[in-house]
């Protein structure tokens, strides 16, 4: 159940975690898997608009899909894209990754194995995963041109879809902000400056008990 206090705290984190970049025509669309199938729809839309000739769907089973999905995130996303008009010949599947870092590393390894060398990428993920996606990719590939995008939706509308519970959403936002803070020291992401008001909102959410994804 939503309340005004937690909603405003979440909005502060959401606004920081979303990058709102303008995408550029690129060689490849790399789609990071999750429970949110609207990410696949966004990827299909930008492919059909001519932003790139190739789509890599990456994802095995993650935190929110491992107990409920029988088909990998990559295959599920690809099926959605094909139904929207993306040809199978333009799709590559990476089915083993279980987190953002593996999404990037395994996908790039797969492209290399197939002797495909895109010089630029559009990365597609959930709105609140844009910053982490950027920071993770840039940690491993510092010079490759990238832009990041996600389903074009407000936080309020995102929540109204009911894809995940409000409490899980708050736990997830807090967890993602925690990873922005800590993952650079672990070698997983490039450092990202966190504004003081954003960190304050994070600490308030954690104090309210939304700490299930802090690890």
From TrEMBL:
DUF218 domain segment(s): 27-148
Protein name: YdcF family protein
